[in-house]
User: Which sequence fits this backbone?
């Protein structure tokens, strides 16, 4: 009788283990399906984010390049999106011809003044704000010879 009881317990335990294994397999399958949905959603969100970034970059680049062209036609501006630490960071890239330059190292500061002003105008143009921009000596370092051109902006 003891052998029969042991066999019954073993059968019951095995059935219980099989039921638990089946539950775990179903859970695993559901998790895999959820993961697939999350991954597809992530791809969709990334593509939407890239499109928004592209449109935003285009608007900002155009405004700043238009401003730079008035006084510094050899310079151009571009926003670059750089993945870093699991996020996307934005770099402001200035070029002289085809070469990237650090405008903070340029002489005078007029280029920086103009770039900052154009960036403010770009942000103003893409945001929902009132029609007021307060400026305090925005072109302080622009040379006297270039000020008439800046006035055209």
Assistant:
């Amino acid at each position: 009788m003891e052998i029969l009881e042991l066999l019954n317990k073993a059968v019951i335990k095995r059935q219980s283990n099989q039921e638990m294994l089946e539950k775990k397999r179903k859970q695993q399958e559901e998790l895999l399906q959820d993961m697939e949905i999350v991954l597809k959603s992530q791809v969709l969100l990334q593509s939407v984010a890239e499109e928004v970034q592209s449109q935003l970059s285009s608007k900002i680049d155009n405004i700043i390049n238009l401003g730079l062209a008035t006084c510094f036609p050899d310079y151009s501006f571009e926003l670059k999106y750089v993945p870093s630490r699991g996020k996307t960071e934005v770099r402001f890239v200035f070029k002289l011809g085809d070469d990237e330059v650090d405008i903070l190292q340029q002489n005078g500061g007029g280029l920086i003044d103009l770039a900052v002003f154009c960036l403010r105008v770009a942000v103003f143009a893409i945001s929902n704000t009132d029609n007021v921009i307060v400026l305090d000596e925005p072109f302080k370092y622009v040379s006297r010879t270039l000020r008439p051109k800046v006035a055209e902006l």
